[in-house]
Specification:
This protein is mainly α and 166 residues long. The protein is 75% helix and 0% strand. It is globular, with a radius of gyration of 15 Å. The N and C termini lie far apart (39 Å).
Length: 166
C-alpha cells in the first residue's frame, strides 16, 4: 500500500505542477488554494534541503513536520509526501515553472508564508548554509517579494526556530 500511495502522490504532484494554474484576480486574491500552495511548497522545500549538498536528518525531520502541519497529515503520510516530492524532482519537475505559477497565482500573503516555511527548513539544522540562504533569496525574488518581506520572514522563522530549541 505504501508504494501505491507514493506512486499516486507522485502522479498527483506531477499532474498538478504541469497543469495551468488559475491566475490571481485583479483584487489580488489568490486563485491557488492553500493545499495547492503546500504541494508546490513541498517541492521547493525539498530543494532547499538539498541546496547545501549536505542533507541532514534534522532538516528532513523538519521538512516532514512542516509538510505534515501544512497538510494536516500524520508523520508517516507526511514522509510519503516528501518522498513523492523528491521523486517529482527526480522526474524533472521544473523549478522555474513552479516559481512562475506560484508568482502568478498566489497572494502576497501566501508568498510570505511560503518563504517563511522555506527559511524554517533552512534553519532546521541550526546552521544556515550560504547555498540555502541564496536559494531562499532567489525564490523570494522570483515571487516578487520585497526585501522587507524577505527580512521579516527570515526573522520570524529564526525566532520560531529559537523558541523551539529552548
Amino acid at each position: 500500500m505504501d508504494q501505491e500511495l507514493r506512486a499516486e502522490l507522485v502522479r498527483e504532484i506531477t499532474d498538478f505542477l504541469e497543469k495551468n494554474w488559475p491566475r490571481a484576480t485583479d483584487e489580488g486574491s489568490a486563485a491557488i488554494t492553500d493545499r495547492q500552495l503546500q504541494a508546490a511548497a513541498t517541492v521547493l522545500m525539498v530543494s532547499v534541503v538539498r541546496a547545501d549538498q549536505a542533507s541532514r536528518q534534522d532538516e528532513h525531520r523538519a521538512l516532514e513536520e512542516a509538510v505534515g502541519q501544512a497538510l494536516d497529515l500524520d508523520p508517516e503520510t507526511s514522509a510519503i509526501v516528501v518522498r513523492a516530492a523528491e521523486d517529482a524532482i527526480a522526474r524533472g519537475a521544473s523549478f522555474a515553472t513552479i516559481l512562475r505559477k506560484l508568482d502568478a497565482g498566489c497572494s502576497v500573503s501566501q508568498k510570505r508564508r511560503l518563504v517563511e516555511a522555506l527559511w524554517r527548513i533552512a534553519f532546521a539544522d541550526a546552521e544556515l548554509a550560504g547555498q540555502e540562504e541564496e536559494l531562499v533569496r532567489k525564490i523570494a525574488g522570483h515571487l516578487n517579494l520585497t526585501t522587507a518581506d524577505l527580512v521579516e520572514t527570515k526573522i520570524r522563522a529564526r525566532e520560531k526556530f529559537l523558541a523551539e530549541d529552548l
